[in-house]
Amino acid sequence: MKVFISRDIPAQGIDLLRAEGFEVTVWQVDRPLTQPELIENAKQHDALLCMFSDKIDKIFLNECKHLKVIAQFAIGYDNIDVPEAVRLRIPIGITPDVLSEATADVAFLLMLAASRKAFHLHKTIFRGEWTFFRPKANLGMELKNKTLGIFGLGRIGVEMAKRCKGAYQMNVIYCNRSRSPVADELLLAQKVEFDELLAQSDVLSVHCSLNEATKGIFNKTAFHKMKRTAIFINTARGLIHNEKDLIDALNERVIWGAGLDVTNPEPMRPNNPLLSMESVAVLPHIGSATIEARNAMARLSAENIIHGLRGEKFPNIINPEVYL
C-alpha cells in the first residue's frame, strides 16, 4: 500500500506508517502543491494525508475515487466536499482534541496582547519612540471580572473559558447550538442568544466551525451590536468574520480591539491596515503550532490511514456513513 503526504509532517506519523509496511512519499518542495499536482500524485497512491489548505473538492475526489482513505492534518475540514466523499465511499479522518490546548493558548495570548496593545507597542521600540514616561500614554485595559463570550463552545472554547475564568475570574457566556453541561457546571457559564452574546461580551472569542450559517456572521451589523470597549478574537477560520467590516469597526471605534490567528484571505498581505492598528494583534495561523500538538496530529493522521487501509472504521472519521 502506498501513502502520499502533501506536506512534510513530524517524523512520528511517517514512522508509524512505514512500521506498518506502507510505502510513504512526502512532498518535499517548499510550497503547496497545485491541485493538478495533488491529483497526479494521489493517483499513484492508495491513501492521502493532506492539509487543510489542499482543495479536496468534487473535481479532486472524482479524479482520485480509487483512494481508500483520506486523512486531514487538521481538525477543520471545510476544504473537503464531504457529501461527494460519502457518495464515492471514501472515508475522511481528522485530528480532533490534540490541538485544543495549543489553540486555546493562542486565543488567550491574543486577548492579552490586544488588551495591552502589546504588538503595536513592541514595534514602537524599533522606531525609536520609547522615550520618556507619559502618564496617559499607551493605556490598555484590565481583564479581571470582565465578561468572556464564546461563540461555538466546543473543546477549544471550553479550554479558553477555563483559562479566562482561572486567571481573571471572568464571567463566561456562550452561544452554541446546544447547552454545555461542562461549561454550565464547571465554569458557571450561561448560554445566551447571539445578539445577547454581542451585547454583553467584553471579550468575544470565536471557536465555531466554518459553515454556511457561520460564514461572515461577524459583519458590520454584528460589530455595531458589540460594546465600544469589546475585543474580538478569532482563532477558528478567517471567513467567519468580514475583514473589511472589522477594519471599519476598529477605525470608527465601534469596538476597541481584535486578536486574529486567522484572516480573510490567508496569508494576510503585509500592507493590511490591521497590522498597524494599536489594539490589534495578528498571528500567522499558528494555533496548533507546538511540538506536542503537531506530533499528536501526525500520530492521529497516521492512525486514521492505518485503520482506513485495513478497511476498519476509525474513531476520528467525519463521514462514518461510508461504512453503512
Concise description?
With 324 residues, the protein is an alpha/beta fold.
Q: What does it look like?
A:
This protein is α/β, with parallel strands linked by helices and 324 residues long. The chain has 2 domains: 2-98 and 290-323, Rossmann fold, CATH 3.40.50.720; 100-282, 3-Layer(aba) Sandwich (Rossmann fold). It is 35% helix and 14% strand. The chain is built from 12 helices and 12 strands. It has helices at 11-19, 35-42, 58-63, 82-87, 100-115, 118-126, 155-168, 181-186, 194-200, 220-224, 243-251, 291-309; strands spanning 2-5, 23-26, 47-50, 69-72, 92-93, 147-151, 171-175, 190-191, 203-206, 231-234, 257-260, 280-282. The strands form 2 sheets. Strands 8-7-6-9-10-11-12 form a 7-stranded parallel sheet, sandwiched between helices. Helix 4 (82-87) links the parallel strand 4 (69-72) and strand 5. Helix 1 (11-19) packs parallel to helix 12 (291-309) and helix 5 crosses helix 7 (155-168). The radius of gyration is 21 Å and the shape is globular.
